[in-house]
Amino acid sequence: MNNEGGETWSVFDVIGHLIHGEKTDWITRIEIILSEGANKEFVPFDRFAQLEESKGKSLEQILKEFLTARELSLKKLRGFKLTENDFNKTGIHPKFGSVTLSQLVAAWTVHDLDHISQISRVMSKQYKEQSGPWIEYMKILGQ
Amino acid sequence: MNNEGGETWSVFDVIGHLIHGEKTDWITRIEIILSEGANKEFVPFDRFAQLEESKGKSLEQILKEFLTARELSLKKLRGFKLTENDFNKTGIHPKFGSVTLSQLVAAWTVHDLDHISQISRVMSKQYKEQSGPWIEYMKILGQ
């Protein structure tokens, strides 16, 4: 088993999800918030797109793809030259309604950390049986 | 707050703990298991040594220290040229009794992942308030 059972995600699935986020979510939403246009609504994020988009690829391939996509995101982010005033600008989230750029950027950071934690958890479970009595000391194996 | 409240660890504390593990735990115990000596008992691991050892240092300093210690550990690990037979050899854990080299190495791996997950959790909590409504989507913020 390479996931946490049932429909849960493998590390491969998580990386695909992160790539899709780089391409359609975070930077795109920042651009909507910063735009002068009247329509500030975000397009709902597809949480299952990666299941199709990553099909037939290797883990190495999608890791490289993520690296490239993230580098591009960071380049764009720096390019915005965000000011303190920008961080208070808002967009319309399909579920939450009005959200600030500040909240979006914080959520992007926590989203990364959440999936790093998930990857650690999924990987650690591959070694659960092999760890023998140490299981007891490892909080992550009980999650 | 840079930890999870009370006596919980900050990222700084976790890195100190990992350094102490590199210096006194994993490789030292592998050496005991592989040794020809009659005494196969492990010295109990001090989980609080880092509170003294890291005092007055910067996070950057201890991150470099961990990197150096880990590189040395991996060099030693490769140097052991472990065979399949070696993985079945045993040592005496102060609490668990007889454990195999295989279990020790698996536990070392899970121990890393456990603390990566902890670091992600501690860091994510720094952005909890700032994430606004997204908190609801972030599993890690509820842990």
Biggest sheet architecture of chain A: 2 strands, antiparallel
Radius of gyration of chain A: 18 Å
- Low-confidence parts of chain A: none
Mean pLDDT across all amino acids of chain A: 95
Oligomer: homodimer
The tally of helices of chain A reads: 5
Proportion of residues in β-strands of chain A: 5-15%
Helical percentage of chain A? 40-55%
SS content category of chain A: mainly alpha
Q: Strands of the biggest beta sheet of chain A: in what spatial order?
A: 1-2
| Form type of chain A | elongated
- Considering residues with a beta carbon less than 8 A from a beta carbon on another chain, report the largest interface and each chain's count: A-B, 34 and 34 residues
Number of strands of chain A: 2
Termini separation of chain A: 16 Å
Order of helices and strands of chain A: HHHHEEH
Q: Describe it for me?
A:
2 copies of one chain form a homodimer. The first copy, chain A, has 143 residues and is mainly alpha-helical. Helix content of chain A is 52%, strand content 6%. Chain A has 5 helices and 2 strands, in the order ααααββα. The first copy, chain A, has helices spanning 11-24, 26-34, 49-53, 59-79, 101-125, and strands spanning 90-93, 97-100. A two-stranded antiparallel ribbon of chain A has the order 1-2. The longest helix of chain A has 25 residues, at 101-125. The radius of gyration of chain A is 18 Å and the shape is elongated. Chains A and B meet through helix 5 of A and helix 5 of B.
